[in-house]
Amino acid sequence: MTELPARRLMLVHAHPDDESINNGATMARYAAEGAHVTLVTCTLGERGEVIPDELRHLSGAALGGHRLGELRDAMRALGVTDFRLLGGAGRYCDSGMMGLPDNEDPGCFWQADVDQAAATLAEVILEVRPQVLVTYDENGGYGHPDHIQTHRVAMRAVELAAASGWDIPKVYWNRVPRSVVEESFARLDGDLAGLPFDKAGAVDDVPGVVDDERITTVIDGTAYASAKAAAMRAHATQIAVAEPYFVLSNELAQPLFTTEYYELVRGERPGVRESDLFAGVGAGGAS
Ligand SMILES: [Zn+2]
């Protein structure tokens, strides 16, 4: 095996675009600092709603193929070269929103066998040996079946990899502190008239919001704000950006956070807030 960089970060996401929205600044920062950044995306988001009129004809596999191209462009913007689809592109398809008949599609990620998908992810973990893994909380941040399943598969894969010789020292869930979200929406209400968006969203539109005291780690990605915005713009079927705000297909404006927040759920909880996901991890990590 070729020698791995000292610091290795893995992120596990449901659809192309989730990584840029949740972790774009973090990924750009660590890639720029020479860490090895690995993104594993579980589906191609074939059932996503398309924003631009001129791309609205895309659906199913054609949309998935297009979104893979968007993901490539986003990774170029963030400086990340190692990105993979779980089990290969098209292995698991998008499950659609919760409660739709799409959830019953036998090929969709929601129907995947968790242990089997986790074994596939564990192989990647054993290859890359990350000291840090980032994914969603048990509700997938906001209840989308693919996000919930991503949580289950990622957390199970962490256990499987630990049993096979690589115990990831630190696992984080994506979070946003409630106070920050509330302040940002208050600012958005004042800014809305000057934006290309008609309506503002609300706190509930932001995934992973928790009380401030649950936040263990704050990554200041201000220096990577333009890289994050460029990565989000690359996902043009899903996101429209007007910094420092953006909309998804529901057309409700929400803040674009360039400081990103995390809750440590595996590893010793720090006494004070960390400013580095690798804090306390030795160069070699666990062995
Ligand atoms: Zn998603």
UniProtKB/TrEMBL annotation:
Pfam families: PIG-L. Zn(2+) binds at H15, D18, H147. Its cofactor is Zn(2+). Binds 1 zinc ion per subunit. It catalyses: 1D-myo-inositol 2-acetamido-2-deoxy-alpha-D-glucopyranoside + H2O = 1D-myo-inositol 2-amino-2-deoxy-alpha-D-glucopyranoside + acetate. The keyword Metal-binding applies. GO terms for biological process: mycothiol biosynthetic process. GO terms for molecular function: N-acetylglucosaminylinositol deacetylase activity; zinc ion binding. SUPFAM superfamilies: LmbE-like (SSF102588). Transmembrane segments: none annotated. It is an enzyme of class 3 (hydrolase). InterPro entries: GlcNAc_PI_deacetylase-related, LmbE-like_dom_sf, Mycothiol_biosynthesis_MshB. PANTHER family: 1D-MYO-INOSITOL 2-ACETAMIDO-2-DEOXY-ALPHA-D-GLUCOPYRANOSIDE DEACETYLASE, N-ACETYLGLUCOSAMINYL-PHOSPHATIDYLINOSITOL DE-N-ACETYLASE-RELATED. Belongs to the MshB deacetylase family. Catalyzes the deacetylation of 1D-myo-inositol 2-acetamido-2-deoxy-alpha-D-glucopyranoside (GlcNAc-Ins) in the mycothiol biosynthesis pathway. NCBIfam families: mycothiol_MshB (TIGR03445). This is 1D-myo-inositol 2-acetamido-2-deoxy-alpha-D-glucopyranoside deacetylase.
